[in-house]
Amino acid sequence: MSRVKRIGILVVLALIIATFVIVPMLNKPKIEDEIIASEFTFQDNLAVTFGKKVPLSFKILADGILSSKVYVNDSLLKTWNNPKGQISFTLDVSIFGLGAKTISLVSNLKNGEEQTDARLIRILSDESPKSMNAIVLKSFVHNSSSFTQGLEFSDGILFESTGLNGKSKIAKVQLETGIQTNEIGLDATYFGEGITILNDKIFQITWQNQKCFIYDKNTLQVQKDISYIGEGWGLCNDGKSIIMSDGTETITFRNPETFQIERTIEVYDQVGPRVKLNELEYINGRIFANIWMLDVIIEIDPKTGKVLSEIDCSDVVKAGKGTGEVLNGIAYNPKNRKTYLTGKNWSNLLEVEFK
Ligand SMILES: [Ca+2]
Questions:
Q1: Quick one: pLDDT at residue 12?
Q2: Ligand 1 center from residue 7 Cα (angstroms)
């Protein structure tokens, strides 16, 4: 091998070593030797039943901690000054609603540093949901071209909202015939979702447009629109607040004037969250929600988010679906105290009884 060739090979080797060994070593991030001053004595996230008192503890691992505080979400639970050793405390989960909360241990060190150790705690329901069935009492015709997203009575008149871009509308529907006596369409850029009627105004949310339209109930003319953040699925109201689902386990209570969030609940049973809550109805102090893609309606305690009952709607689906899609539409008429169900593009709307 000539000298030139050997030098060439050595240069290539040096380049390979520099590219694949030395440069990556230089770029490797340095691991900081951070001292953990305090930590919870449990590593896993917790699942706890509502109403339970849970003994928990944390360890102090370094000297010179001025204070340690335990928070659940943003609420301060307790402060320990100059903590030492292992510290035990009791978490009373009945003071929080159901759902996922963050429990954080925040320690303040003498050097001004603040350290946080956090875990997730899921608060599950302490009640087993009652099993019920939706019994079909009577069948009416439903416009099978209606991709139902909202269904509600007001002063004995049935209102229905429908979805899909270019097909979204609000209509007044004659219950006995299924005929739409008055209707107004949405611009094709909007995908309509749930409706609810409060103070003679119809509130209609949209799926991903983050816009709520407010109509005059009598004329069906849009009065204004309000923006919100996130997806819109179902709506109902309790006479004071607009109650909204977004496809998760969270239900949001909103001010009807400003649409600002007043409070939220997370819907849980004894096992975990109930997600995909869709069309809603407020009946005698309870929220009823049908679950997207299931033949199931659940009854929810609006204060805590507990699932109180689970209603099997398979007989209703058999009786009403036809060639349509999923169950979606619960309407209670306070005038005759009757409940009605339908679904997206269903051929029938059924009067039902939950039993
Ligand atoms: Ca409804």
A1: 73
A2: 82
Give CATH for domain 38-124: 2.60.40.10
CA of 193 to the centre of ligand 1 (A): 11
Question: What's the whole-number average pLDDT of the chain?
Answer: 93
Looking at residue 26, its pLDDT comes to 59
- Ligand 1 centroid, distance to 201 Cα (angstroms): 15
Q: How far is ligand 1, taken at its centre, from the CA of residue 118, in Å?
A: 39
| Dist. CA 50 → ligand 1 center (Å) | 29
What are the residue boundaries of the structural domains of the chain, listed by start? 38-124, 130-354
Q: Give distance in angstroms: CA of 304 to centre of ligand 1.
A: 21
DSSP string, 233-264: --EEE-SSSEEEE-SSSEEEEE-TTT--EEEE
The alpha carbon of 289 and the centre of ligand 1 are apart by a number of angstroms equal to: 8
Provide the 10 A C-beta neighbour count for residue 206: 23
How far is it, in rounded angstroms, from Cα 49 to Cα 53?
9
The domain made up of 130-354 has a fold known as Neuraminidase (2.120.10)
Q: Tell me the pLDDT tens digit for each residue of 251-267.
A: 999 999 999 999 999 99
Domains 38-124 and 130-354 fall in the same CATH topology? no
User: 175 C-alpha vs ligand 1 centroid, how far in Å?
Assistant: 15
Tell me the whole-structure pTM to 2 decimals. 0.84
- Supply the pLDDT for residue 123: 95
Q: Residue 329: pLDDT above 60?
A: yes
Dihedral angle sign, alpha carbons of residues 274, 94, 251, 303: positive
Instruction: Please give the DSSP secondary-structure letter assigned to residue 241.
Output: S
